[in-house]
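(Deposited chain)
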Amino acid sequence: MANAINWFEIPATDHERAVNFYGKVLGSELQPMEIMGIKMGFLNSGDGEVGGAVCTGEGYKPSADGAVVYLNGGEDLSTPLARVEEAGGKVVVPKTKISDEIGYFAMFMDSEGNKMAFHSPK
């Protein structure tokens, strides 16, 4: 198994707000699609990479208490983290060094109330 995770879904109550939030924070446009009545905004990923989407529909409820998804913060997570608050989120753990080998992390609340995180080597 190459990755323990092969797909993730970020729940949203206001789909447009959430798609705009992640588009601004990640600096890329999410690709819209509707599957089986679920509105989805696909985050960019390459072939063979772990992918995910912002999802709105029955059974999707944002939470600050569930699993935490760590998004790729690029070479330095300071860049996407700096966009969180202007996009409507809140930084709850600033950029923090884990170790020289592992790198850095930061946590934030998204526009929907989900606790999320970034990871980067620098």
